[in-house]
Structure formats: C-alpha cells, structure tokens
Amino acid sequence: MNSFKGFKEGRVRLTPVPDLFFSELLPQIDHLGELKVSIYAFYRLDRMEGVFRYLRQANFLEDADFMQGLGANPHEAREALYTALERCVQRGTLLKTNLELEGSEEIFYFLNSPKGRAAVEAIKRAEWQPSSDALAPIDVTPAHPNIFRLYEENIGPLTPMISETLQDAEQTYPANWIEEAIQIAVENNVRRWSYVEAVLERWKDEGRHGRKDRQATEEDRRKYVEGEFSDFIEH
Q1: Radius of gyration of the chain (CA)
Q2: 135 plus 151 within the same structural domain
Q3: What pLDDT digit, counting tens, does each position of 134-179 carry?
Q4: pLDDT for 211
Q5: What are phi and psi of 11, to 5 degrees?
Q6: In a domain, 194, yes or no
Q7: Element of type H or E holding 109
Q8: Helices marked H in 49-136
Q9: 224-234 pLDDT, tens per residue?
C-alpha cells in the first residue's frame, strides 16, 4: 500500500461538495468505484469553465493516476469506470445524454443539479451548438437566461435550499419578471432573494408595469427602496 505524505502547508485549493452528498447520497453508495467516480466528478467539474459544465468519458480516462486506482490493468480500469459511471447515472448523481458529433455518438455527463438539469433539457430541445474548443465540444444555449445562472451572477452562490426556492419561483412567475426583478435588486444594491421575491409578489398582486427603456426613473427607484421594501435595505 502506498502511503500518503499528508496535506501541504499554506493555501490549498478546495473542491466544494454539497452537504446533500454526505447526508443523502453517501449513505446509499455501496460500491467503491461509484464512490470514487462521484467524488472525482465534483473535482473535475469545479476546475472547468463555463455556465454549463459537463464531463465525457475522456475526462476520466486521461487521468492516469485516477484510472490506476480503478483497476489492476488498463482494460480492467476502463470496465470499472464504465460500470461506475452507469451506477452514478442510475443513482441520480449524474445525468447522461447522448449526442452525435461529427458522425459519431458521444456521451455527456452533467451533475444532477439545477444547472445540470437545465442543460440536459436544453439539449433535448436542440438548444446547443458545436464549440470550437476541442476540450468542450458543445455549448449549451438555452433560449432565455437561466434563473440559476442569473442568481449566481447577480446575488450569490447556490445552495440546495435556494435552488428549490428558485425552482418554485420559476413555476410561479414568468421568466422576464424574474430577470427584471433581479435587475432591480442589483440597481438598488440589494443582493438578496427575499427582496427579489418581494418585488415579484407585488407585481403578482398589483400588476407589473414595464419600465421605460428598461432604466428606472427616480420615481421607480424610490418605489423599490421605500415602504414595504425598506426592510431589505441596509442603512
């Protein structure tokens, strides 16, 4: 057995893993290969760029150190990888979709997260295009800004709880309402979902009125920082 020399001193890069992995998934996983592939998927996805990130079998196969831990020889390691990936899909940790690129079919794996589910649905609707990047051969291009991307880019990081809240909002309010409410929150420097939700609820109760040239007038600005919205403003 090879011994581990320990973690190095100083700043080291960390890989975020959702709490639900430890509280719900980990107790269910009873296969070592599935566990290794699941954790490795978090590691590789975190080091990729782009809004919608995905893995291919090549991403696993090209890492010789990782593959060596799956089998005694290359053939055994590959078979173990394919089995582990399929178990991850069956478990629901990863989502799998197939696409034909340049005459051959390729498998893409997405994390079963709000963004991953949105990406798979976009691919099913043919909302994707070939990419010039050989390492990431497809770009997922949903027709409208994704609510989860809007939240992360304008308010803060996603958590399992806020992801469920955003899914509920997506079922309750039109997409353009959510996009504009987030824009109002940014303009007023109130980067909280509770504020966005208050704006949406007001529009639902009283009706939504479009803003001229999508720029808030002084009257509009006061409307969203005074009265019922003042509780969300830091003074």
Answers
A1: 22
A2: no
A3: 888 998 865 566 788 889 888 988 888 898 899 899 889 888 889 8
A4: 45
A5: -70, 130
A6: yes
A7: strand 104-111
A8: 57-61, 64-68, 74-91, 114-124
A9: 445 444 454 45
**Structural domain containing residue 131:** 19-140
β-bridge mates for residue 217, sequence order: none
Same domain, 96 and 154: no
Distance separating the N- and C-terminal Cα atoms of the chain: 60
Q: How many helices (H) and strands (E) does the chain have?
A: 11, 4
Q: Which two tokens stand for residue 181?
A: 């409410």
Residues 153 and 94 in one domain: no
AA identity, residue 82: Y
Kindly state whether residues 27 and 115 are assigned to the same domain.
Answer: yes
Residues 93 and 160 in one domain: no
Q: Is 94 helix (H, G, I), strand (E, B) or coil?
A: strand
Q: Which pair of tokens denotes residue 93?
A: 């940790």
Q: What is the Cα–Cα distance from 220 to 81, expressed in whole angstroms? A: 56
Alpha helix positions (H), 73-192: 74-91, 114-124, 147-154, 160-172, 175-187
Residue 219 has pLDDT above 80, yes or no: no
Cα–Cα distance, 166 to 170 (Å, whole number):
6
**pLDDT (tens digit per residue) in 24-48:** 999 999 999 999 999 999 999 999 9
Tokens, residue 232:
């969300």
Contacts of 57 (CB under 8 A, 6+ apart): 81, 82, 85, 107
> Structurally, how many domains does the chain consist of?
2
Q: What is the CATH number of the domain that holds 113?
A: 1.10.10.10
